[in-house]
Amino acid sequence: MNRQGAKVAKNSAFNYLSLAFLAFLAVKTLMTLDKATEMLKVQAGFGGFYNANSAKLILAEVSREHGQAAVDRLIRELNLDKVFNFEPGMRFEGGLAIKK
Length: 100
Fold this sequence. Notes:
By secondary structure, this protein is mainly alpha-helical. It is built from 5 helices and 2 strands; from the N terminus they run H-H-H-H-H-E-E. Strands 1-2 form a two-stranded antiparallel sheet. It is globular. The model is unreliable at 5-9 (pLDDT under 50).
């Protein structure tokens, strides 16, 4: 396996574990806006498809606990429109992003 293949395999394993961890968090704890901001910063830092899915799960939890206005604010503050093509007004339900 070349370096690129090893890097992809490592990132895939990391992303799978991060999704599992996010699912655990969604069930066991309340999502504060500070916690969501920190987790979204990590996902945005990596970018990519798997991290966009993780960000959708985080934003779904924020929406459930704090409402759509909090989701829109996080999208703007963290530039998730540029990183993951999320738009203010998008609804997040589970792993789905539903346009307005």
